[in-house]
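Case study 2.
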Amino acid sequence: MKSIKETVSKPQRPVKVLQFGEGNFLRAFVDWIIDLLNEKSDFNGSVMMVQPLAKGMGEMINDQDGLYTTVLRGVRNGKPVEEFRKITSVEGCINPYSEYDKFIAQAENPDLRFIISNTTEAGIAYHEGDKLENKPQVSYPGKVCAFLYKRYQHFNGSADKGIIVIPCELIDKNGDNLKAIIKRYAGEWGLEKGFITWLDTACDFCNSLVDRIVPGYPRAEADAICERLGYKDNLLDSAEIFLLWVIECHGKTHEDELPTAKAGVNVIWTDDMSFYRTRKVRILNGAHTMSVLAAYQTGLNTVEECIKSPLVFPMMKRGLFEEIIPSMDGDKKQLEEYAGDVLERFANPYIVHLLLSISLNSVSKFKTRDLPSLLGYVKKEGKLPVVLPFSLAALISFYEGTEYEGTALVGNRNGEKYLINDSPEVLEKFASLYKASYKDNKEKAEKIAKAVLSETSWWGEDLTAVAGLEAVVAKHLENIWTNGMTKAIESL
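Prediction:
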């Protein structure tokens, strides 16, 4: 079978987008949108990816000349829909850990207008010790600061060579937070005031919210899909039909440069995205993080299986409608309608969304997605919810492991190993807790619950101060370890 490279002559377009992140989500979201803009508007631009970590998909992407196929499937007007699209918008991928000069040289590109990123919720973070002379800096904000400073110097602070920065990480005010860390580095590195002024006046750090379920590579169907397409594609990227991108700009929209309306893409430009963000992160993403770690430990593997499960689905539904929505401000009916739509999207039979894929960086995800609902419920109702503390216990139990495989901690599900992926600090903490000796499950549960909940660097506060939470989480952990996850969910 011929390769995808043999099926298309990729157009040469100027690189207008520098994209930090080469994973499934951005390829089926941002790069898919750019591909549509090239077809349906005068955008005429390509994307250069930057691999945020030393190990990633860059080589695979370059091996296929940046080409790959998106596989969008879902139900529209009651009928199944399937759309294949050959994406030609990606120029290639740079690994700054081995190609730093090639990465920083992109700062001299006069056509560059956008920096877009998805480095997970853990990516927009300050790393003590990052220096301007590092090649590269450890943190994503450090890399961007060095990149923008290089651009500022090369173009002598020209106002028309500023950059529009649109992060897609699911943290509140992602653009504002990224800018704040960049300015912190600029101060620490002793960069001139003119650079700070250029950041403030020539660049725009937009906050944004992304919404599309992207399971990624359809492993079980890949060979059959390639047979249908007539070519081999090792980077097939599956996603749902639905897409929403809300972009909050400061002062003006940038639709004149990113003409999404012309391409018929569901992008909302706004000066206040708070409603959209809260609704999506706490309901859609919150339902995922609240449910999948417990579900995985019962033996389930996909979101669709969760929806079909007579054990997990009632827990998910109860958490959504009786805990998450009551914790939120806003029209209850609208929130419930959105939650109903979300459950329908989860049930999409064409999307194989692996629970282990969702489990990546679950500690920071729980803080962003579910902790506000848990604390909001306590504040409004004056008592603890039921499902959300249980989901926190399920997270702690999911992270049980003492040995590593590469950078991942190795967990065990009924004799079957699985990989736990998170930041090194999080994994080291869990490994040390699980290496300790305990006389029984009760002591193990109490000590580990206390240690995890009091980790203020993870949660932003000491969760043992939440009345009753530590005892409830410890009780759930003891139940999980004594009777198994299935019986623990049943006991709810």
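The chain has 21 helices and 15 strands.
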